[in-house]
Design brief:
mainly alpha, 216 residues, 9 helices
Length: 216
């Protein structure tokens, strides 16, 4: 699996397709977060902005290989393992960017009444919850379920929006927990939201890998 992850990461970095999602995330955080605002509310927005970026990144990784190269990798490692490596790569880089953004936002935000360590922990857990939820959306909005680019992008946009506003979504729970904590300056790390997002991402990954092995 390590070799597959290096292969997928190398493809992503060399293609420079990672640049557009990263710039989108930087623009969203730069416009939506102001220096001196309550840190928990800013971290909630920072985590929420990561969801569509993660979904986009996963879709990029699932579609970046030429068909011939995909067939060779699948023959060598198995379609399920190759698909899983693309999913993990697509989700891992946005989560890393989200962690950097959490540290930066915590440094410039108003931390009065909130311990920096508690703010960072809450922000990292919320970013992980949103990143994993976005990864699940990206996996369902790409191959092998949707092959046409137009339908895939439409499903990705709609799925990202629903994941942010639907009751019961781990991303929404994590985001609202931080926004609510900003009103009372009480940091309550969204452990349950993070655990729910992890279970959701694992279930979608297993379903997607099995579908890939059967349909492709």
């Amino acid at each position: 699996m390590t070799a597959l992850l290096r292969y997928q990461s190398g493809l992503l970095l060399r293609s420079q397709r990672w640049l557009a999602p990263l710039l989108l995330y930087a623009a969203l955080v730069g416009v939506g977060v102001q220096a001196g605002e309550p840190v928990l509310g800013a971290l909630g927005f920072t985590a929420a902005a990561l969801l569509p970026v993660s979904a986009w990144s996963v879709r990029i990784c699932l579609t970046q290989e030429p068909p011939a190269a995909r067939s060779v990798v699948a023959a060598a490692a198995g379609r399920g393992r190759a698909h899983l490596a693309a999913l993990v790569t697509g989700a891992g880089w946005p989560v890393l960017a989200g962690a950097v953004a959490v540290l930066a936002v915590t440094a410039i935000g108003d931390r009065r009444g909130t311990a920096p360590s508690a703010a960072v922990a809450s922000g990292l857990l919320a970013a992980l919850a949103c990143g994993l939820t976005g990864a699940a959306v990206g996996a369902l909005a790409s191959r092998p379920f949707l092959r046409a680019p137009g339908w895939s992008v439409a499903a990705l946009v709609l799925g990202s929006l629903l994941a942010l506003v639907t009751t019961g979504s781990p991303a929404k729970y994590a985001m609202t927990a931080l926004v609510a904590g900003a009103r009372t300056a009480t940091a309550e790390p969204p452990w349950f939201a993070c655990a729910g997002a992890l279970l959701l991402a694992a279930a979608v990954a297993a379903f997607s890998c099995r579908a890939t092995a059967r349909l492709e």
